Amino acid sequence: MTIIVNSLPYIQIILSIILTVAILLQQSGAGAGGAFGGGDGSAMYNTRRGFEKFLFVTTIVTAILFAVSAFIAILVK
């Protein structure tokens, strides 16, 4: 149990860095399209493929892991 308590802050730091990078790397196409008049709802539905899908899934998984690690940190204290 002490191993988890001692390594939890480092795990949270690593997860937060990964989460921040994953969020910043995602495209903000909707925001840019809306700024130039393209946000009228006539745009076609766009599926994620390749690196964009990997980044999307990585963001979700990292956010879940970060939330779980924060919950564990609360329980351990």
Overall description:
It is built from 3 helices and no strands. It has 77 residues and is mainly alpha-helical. The chain has one domain.
List the helices and strands and how they pair.
Blueprint: H1 2-25, H2 29-35, H3 51-76
Run of helices and strands: HHH
Shape: elongated
Radius of gyration: 18 Å
Low-confidence stretches: none
Number of DSSP helical runs: 3
Give the DSSP E fraction (strand runs of 2 or more residues).
under 5%
Share of helical residues = over 70%
Q: SS-based structural class? A: mainly alpha
Largest sheet geometry: none
Number of strands: 0
Distance between the termini: 12 Å
Q: Give the count of structural domains.
A: 1
Mean pLDDT: 84
Features:
elongated; 77 residues; mainly alpha
Kindly summarize this structure in a few lines.
The protein has 77 residues and is an all-alpha fold. The protein has three helices and no strands. α1 runs antiparallel to α3.
